[in-house]
Amino acid sequence: MIYYNMDISPITAYSLRIDVSHNLLEDQKYLETFYRFLDEHTILKYMFAKEKKEDGTEHLQGIILPIGMDPEVTNTEAWDNCAYEDSELNLMRSQIRLKLVGPNRVGQKGSYSFVKSKKPASLFKYCNDKEGLGVLTNFTDEERTRYGKWDDKEVKKKTLKEELEEYIQDVGDAVSIGEMSRTKFVDEIVDAYVKTYGNLPRATQVEKWLYLYGSNTVEKQRMRRDKYSHIYSGITQSKEYDEHNNNYYEEHGVTDFFEQ
Length: 260
Hints:
Radius of gyration: 25 Å
CATH class of the domain at 14-153: Alpha Beta
Strand order of the largest sheet: 4-1-3-2-5
CATH architecture of the domain at 14-153: 3-Layer(aba) Sandwich
Oligomer: single chain
Helix content: 40-55%
């Protein structure tokens, strides 16, 4: 049996989310386009879970693993060399945007996300039919059992937290390359948190994730300025106060504060 060894780290895998109606997955023409995309880019293994957001919006959340070598190889560097070249990644993003995204979402920002996964094993669990709506996959039942599911009751709380954090980092990559807006990023991470824990995250937690994973340098600086505005204001006022005093001392010839 040939399978992609998820126990090897690092390995190359990509996270692919596509906004598309589940009904369209029953359309033969769409499926032909979908599988042609997988074949054209020599994708060895794939799994796409049917999911719904809190507002009922349907999409596919997937993991794809490209072929580039003998699947039995255990050399980690060789596995990591399976990554796509930038030119092919650009072609794939164009095809996803124009051919795989649902007709009602074509051309809309945030209608798909395609990034290299930092933690393929965690992404696999996230895509392993966590909502019970079904999957499109060529992983065997044995492989799916081996690598587990996101909602496995035996997974410790700490592990769930780590897997959620890793997923959020992957989503953040989509923001950094311009595939997703920061507003959409917040929607995605809140949705993932609710699905993991069954309640809403604290605003401070969402703010932390937005700062760490969904913001560039300029946006981080702006967030710091807003959050600590009273401190920055104090610094500015203190500077103005010091400048005023320095001017006064210079005008009155004060040079030594310890003169008797």
